[in-house]
Amino acid sequence: VAIGYGTQRKEVITGSVSMTKGTDIQKSPAQNIGQSLQGRLSGVVMNNRSGEPGSDGVSINIRGLSTTRDSNPLILIDGIANRGSLERLNPNDIESITILKDASGAIYGSRSANGVILVTTKRGKEGTPSINYSFNVGLQQPTRLPEMADAVTYAEAMNEINSYEGRDPMYTQDEIRKFRDGSDPIHYPNTNWLDETLRSSSLQYRHNISLGGGSEKVKYFVGGGYSDQDGIYKNSATYYKQYDIRSNIDAEVAKYLNVSVDLAGRLEDRHYSGMDVGNIFWAAMRAFPTVLARYPNGLPTSGGLDIGNPVTLVTDETGYRKNKRSVFNGTISADLDLSWLLKGLSVDGVVAYDRVGVENKEWLTPYYYYVWDEETDVYEKRKNGSRTYASLRQDYQPSANFTLNAKLKYKNTFNAVHDVDAMVGFEQNEYTGNDFWASRSNYISTAIDQLFAGSSSKENYNNGGSAYEQARRSYFGRAAYDYAGKYMVQFNFRYDGSYIFPKDNRWGFFPGVSVGWRLSEEKFIKDNLDWMNNLKIRASYGQQGNDNVGAFQYLLNYTNGRNYVFNNADVEGVYQSGFPNPSITWEVANTYNIGLDGTFFNGLIGFETDVFKTTRSNILTKWNASIPQYTGLKDLPDENIGEVENKGIEVQLTHVSKIGDVNLNVSGNFMYARNKVIYVDETPWGKGYDYMKAEGQPINAGLYYRTIGIFRDQEHLDSYPHYAEARPGDLIFEDVDGNKEINSMDRVRYDLTNFPEIVFGMTIAATWKNFDFS
Questions:
Q1: Which CATH homologous superfamily contains domain 2-139?
Q2: What is residue 726's three-state secondary structure?
Q3: pTM
């Protein structure tokens, strides 16, 4: 199993680690690997907030929320960080994915507090060349759509509203009858805008081909893939295409020297309409069901909305938004065996260079609807929305990542029972990038979508750019010992320096220690309980850091603006923006974990159980809430004052059996994690208003009015405090503070958030001869 900067046998691992094989991921080859992992790993929460092709990435969270700041885990691909997220990796290139959930991740120091994900790609194996080709096709469809009112329901509801307000009905009964029976579908349609805008499903497919093999001296794996994902809109302008290639080559170039060269490239092509997905769905759910979507000749109506007809918004009629991304990953590593100097001694080094180029082009054009004159049979073309002329914005964002690390390793066994595995290392990382953009507007024609064709007037063009440099330097190490595979202890550390912090607070030390005891290896169990294959108790404690915060907050910042007139000329000025914090430092997580693992009856029953607790301190938080603005102290800097506690339990159960020619593998996992804010700067609510405090509640717990019923009539309304303009039929908000008024002080801090506290999943896999099911 992959761990930080190395591997260990699963039997002697003392940390909390989850792992899945690449072969399991390939059985459910979604376009996004994060979706393939959902439900497979205990303690891991995948949250997918978009289904738009190429933008359907998942947010990954390990063991719940432990900070009010960024909670994304550290992701390393073949040992290198900053290679992006999981979502666009080719699943056929993956050998395994490992999750470090406790102090075992402390070896990654400053970026490990939210957990660590280790991705290992495939390598060649000794043997004859093997060529593999696979083709996958799947369907994507909305998980759930709201049930929209039809024309009859809408018309009757509008009439009812008018009656309450003393107005005449909006629709006659004869008109409602026509909506119902469909006798005049042109003038009295019954339009389901979601059906008009969306398809029931869309296709996505992937081609993969790979070649692997090698000799005793040279081994190779070469793979390539192409994937295509269509949008769910009808007449869609939306798609995502990806091309990727990978080559991993290992060679023994001398008796004691092995060299590896890994190269990977990927091209991503995204294309969307000129209207964003939020506005498209807003229009599809707000357009009137009593309005025709298209005339019989196919021309679009207005949909009854200023923003436009949703059947038009999904097409290139509104322009387009393109995103093209090119990715290159290159790694050269060497391992020198020094056993001739000392048995078990070796040294290795890695040099990695990654480059990403991102090109965005947004071409937004006016779009139209038509009004039909029945007498003349003429369709008048009119503009929809607020776009008068076309506009264009283009930007280019190149970035590069350079990583260098070296390790001195020692591994040996003494007297056949004492196993020692130790390592110390050095790593340096540099990340650079820049951004240049330009825009033009007021195009006289939509025929040319290039910058030169836009208006040359000063108010119609703009441009800008930025650049950044980041660097980290680290020293790390690990020492592991086990006695006869029975008693295990491990210590790891990292001494990290980050560009995020000022010179005096730049370095942090993050240790981790774990122990384990395999009871199943004790003689009294082996002799009496032979059905017990493995039973292990383990515990760990560690400190981990989080520097995923805004950089250079210790510096005084200046911004252009605040112009002044000198000699009748408007001169641009420079002013101080915000205050610096010269004492800013690391956010620190203290992580505790106790676990119990077991396998009985040769795999018929298996389990892994963990109880965990994390206390996060030094969270960067502002004082703005408790310091009133009349003091003049505005835009205060972040300070290390926040504290959060998170604790919970996770369980994973497994079953492996064989019945005739059928191999069955069943697993299920469950996690409960609840966090609590220990300290955050907040408004001093005053005596008697503790129910409004954020302290003691989960992160992101909001303030809400508590409803206790509905006002039945005017007499009922007059008998209870209510907000201004309340009417019979409105909700009753509880007067929590009892002051006979309904105001903001009656809001209650609810302990429910949009982040799940309970997560569970189950996988079933079966094979029969050459067929498999999962």
A1: TonB-dependent receptor, plug domain (2.170.130.10)
A2: coil
A3: 0.91
